[in-house]
Amino acid sequence: MKEVVLFNHVVFIESFVDGGINTTDSIPQWLDNSNGDKIASTIFKIESINEFKEILNFVERETLNGLKPIIHIEMHGIYEGLVLKDESIFNWRDLFDQLRAINIKCNLNLCIMMGACFSSELLLQLQSLDQPAPFLALFFGVEKVFTPELLQTYEVFYNALFEESDFNQIQRRVLEKCKENNFPNLALITSYGLFAGIWIEFLKRNKAQMKHNFIRRASELKSFAKHKRVFFLLDQYPENAERFDISLSMLRNSKESLWEEGGVIIKKGMKIEFK
Predict the structure, then answer these.
(1) Would strands 69-77 and 81-83 be described as parallel, antiparallel, or unpaired?
(2) 209 pLDDT tier (thresholds 50, 70, 90)
(3) Exposed, middle or buried: residue 13 (CB in 10 Å: 0-12, 13-18, 19+)?
(4) Nearest to residue 83, comparing CAs of 16, 13, 141, 12?
(5) Residue 90: left (phi > 0), alpha (psi -120 to 50), or beta?
(6) Averaging pLDDT over each range in 154-163, 220-229, 233-242, which range is the top one?
(7) Rounded CA gap, 154 and 22, in Å?
(8) Are 72 and 12 in contact (CB under 8 A)?
(9) Each residue's pLDDT tens digit, 39-88
(10) Are residues 17 and 77 in contact, defined by beta-carbon separation less than 8 angstroms?
């Protein structure tokens, strides 16, 4: 898959109980390069869940006017969700549902940058491939993350936005940075990689059963087609068939796995229901 970069606005959302470190003050300088190219950005410093939801609702409405956003979130994270300045907790499930709604409206062009501890919990809210993808790309942390590591990785990501037209190359540069600097708790994953990785794991687990069972293989092919159609919104956006060019035979022959990206192991926490 070659995914052309289409983002046109970065929405920063920040909320810290103790003030935190203002990482959002450092990032906007990376959105204006020496050639005069610039990505528009807006910073929201909020205190409550209601404010958070209002901003996400606003972003969702603006997608109808052509907004293709990067939503960059800087907050404290715990297993239950994001902790806002007023000490309320926005649970991962509710956040996941709102972000997916935005991703649907902007035709799978939502990139999410999560500068929060335990933000891999957001990814773990995916329970089925019978629903649309929650994002085009997600940057997240497993368990605790640290500001110096985040800032170094953000700089690579935002600089790459000006230098790469293919999101796969942006992802490669971020993951290389994480590997070179030994940031094992940080990763950037795409919806394509997520879909492929889940199916590769399923095929590995069921390889022996499927080998000589043609009825089950036919059923498997039918499930794959349905998952691909729903997850990548092919009925709503037919052009996505070309954007997300993936086949079952391609995955059967794959030697790679989603879970090897960035050295982050989280598959044990995912519970994907296959129908």
Answers:
(1) antiparallel
(2) low
(3) buried
(4) 16
(5) beta
(6) 233-242
(7) 13
(8) yes
(9) 788 999 999 999 999 999 999 999 999 999 999 999 999 999 999 999 99
(10) no
The residue to which tokens 């600097």 are assigned: 181
Structure tokens at 225: 């087609």
pLDDT of residue 17: 77
pLDDT band at 210 (very low <50, low <70, confident <90, very high): low
HEC-encoded secondary structure of the chain = CCCECCCCEEEEEEECCCCCCCHHHCHHHHHECCCCCECEEEEEECCCHHHHHHHHHHHHHHHHHCCCEEEEEEEEECCCEEECCCCCEEEHHHHHHHHHHHHHHCCCCCEEEEECCCCHHHHCCCCECCCCCCCCEEEEECCCCCHHHHHHHHHHHHHHHHHCCEHHHHHHHHHHHHHHCCCCCEEEEEHHHHHHHHHHHHHHHCHHHHCCCHHHHHHHHHHHHHHHHHHCCCCCCCCHHHHCCCCHHHHHCCCCCHHHHHHCCCHHHCCCECC
Q: How far apart are CA 16 and CA 87, in angstroms?
A: 9
